[in-house]
Amino acid sequence: MADDPLVIFTPSGKRGRVPAGTPVLEAARRLGVDLDSVCGGRGICSKCQVAPGKGAFSKHGVTVAEDALSGINAVEERYDRIRGLKPGRRLGCQAQIQSDVVIDVPPESQLHRQVIRKSATERVMVMDPAVRPFYVEVVEPDLDDPTGDFQRLSAALDEQWQITGLRADLEVLARIQTVLRKSAWKVTALVWDNGLEPPRLIDLVPGLLDGPVYGLAIDLGSTTIAGHLVALDDGRVLASSGLMNPQIRFGEDLMSRVSYSMMNEGGAAEMTTAVRDGLGQLAAVLADEAGVDPALIAEAVIVCNPVMHHLMLGIDPVELGQAPFAPATSDAMTLRAAEIGLQIAPAARTYVLPIIAGHVGADCAAVVLSEQPQKSEAPVLMVDVGTNAEIVLGDKTRVLACSSPTGPAFEGAQISSGQRAAPGAIERVRIDPVTREPRFRIIGVDEWSNEPGFDEAAKATGITGICGSGIIEAVAEMRMAGIVDPSGLIGSAEQVGTPRSIPQGRTHSYVLHDGTDAGGTLIAVTQGDIRAIQLAKSALFAGARLLMDEFGIETLDRVVLAGAFGAHISPLHALVLGMIPDCAVERVTSAGNAAGTGARIALCSRAARREIEDQVHRITRIETAIAPRFQEHFVAANAIPHATDPFTELQTQVTLPVVSYNTAGDGRARRRRK
After folding, report:
1. What pLDDT score does 124 carry?
2. Which domains does the chain have, with CATH numbers?
């Protein structure tokens, strides 16, 4: 009923109305939200923990009251007393919905754990890290020369390694005497030296350190925080992992978080705390996965977009939400790791790459560092797609950059059957153009759905939903099979010639998988899903087209797809969808997680840091929010692949059906006026 409370779950974006008094767990099940529970709702297992939001959520059009959920009951009190609940968490089986509410399902409460797809790619690098270990033997003090222990250590480093002007933080000074005496005055000093400031003692290790010092390369995205633990002797990656950005409960996209900060007193501080907690969790997971002592992780390098940059640093991002979109600072920064929630070596440092512009961040700078467009003979377009797409176009003559607000649809959010990349999620789709029958692959199973062994293998995970790569391929395949027309409309069963096209109100949906007979789910692509993908891809295309206009070119020689998207979407499907300007299919390549690779390069090379700091000042920034032609390009790009661009290169690879399903609401084709 319209008067029932509205519940919105993040990060899935699924929403619906439920009667007041409905437990959160039951609401999640009704709406197909991925919320775990193994105790039957008795408040024992705690796997259904959720984090309710508070305050105004302008993106969703709701204001969440303090009493949107029922008060903490005796079951929750007992669980919190015995085992402990994180601050702000509730048990979904106990908390009841009383009024409109936004509820975040944290990663550990999701039944299907996310697969972090931003894995590390191999890269040859010249090793020149800022942190190095130095073994020294320190002269013991005596009554004739009672010089301080730090001064003795400094003198030993100067004499034995020519390291002068050493500095130390209080945390390290407090440990020096104990470590020196326990190790008989023979220690390994971890020294940080960026070549610009006096060298700094990060920590002392008793005796000779048998092994390398480590660093973290972190790509702090709006949706996902991905990190790599790197050995600083040869640059090898020992562990890669990630988690959903805990800020997602405040809004899926960047402007929603800026809006939350503006409309809720203390909102920015809440989001800062959340993201720092996430960074701390990631560091601990990486150290545990690699079997590394966190005290030997001596530096971190972080790349992120401007809003994440400000919130990580504890700076209110309000100015990034309004023209002229000026950041508080755009230069590269070095700060103590502990200041931003990284509990690693006592005095570990964190290097943050420079920001290119108010909406073009350090992650884009990292892509430039990784892919080097400024050295290309012909213009190359680089696209790093996330909740906010960052786009670079450049060659030896100049480099341009912009960002475009694509939203979370490419990552499976706000899609009817969408979910994060996890075992059981559909990630690949093919549709027979004659029979319109689909086949697909799910994460965790090698076989396609029409191959022997698939059904047995899929029992372990189930077929649970569709992730970002899956929905992109599904829409492109539907266009190639004539199920969707150029405007994005799904045809009826009669128009398309398959019963998989089912009516849904005034529109239609295409069924990829129906598991309801076996107690599973119905996974379909709805008209709303198509629209969400159209909006996202139009924003991406318009940003790229603006850069081409500024560059004065009509065609592209090469396109590089970066990020999790780039590694998992075929160039052909990207072109059919019209996500990127027309280009020869073989000239569209993937760079994997180029932002993460750029972070690793900066972690391993001081020279690379100086290079990108210099290069950023040479990049021309294009602001899409005020560009006159952005809306024109956006509207034209709503068609699949495009309303006016013939995509001649694409036509050499595939012939798209000429169909039109403009309906009058009853599934019948509407006659065109003559």
Report:
1. 61
2. 6-109 (3.10.20.30), 126-206 (3.10.20.880), 214-352 (3.30.420.480), 365-408+544-639 (no CATH), 423-531 (no CATH)
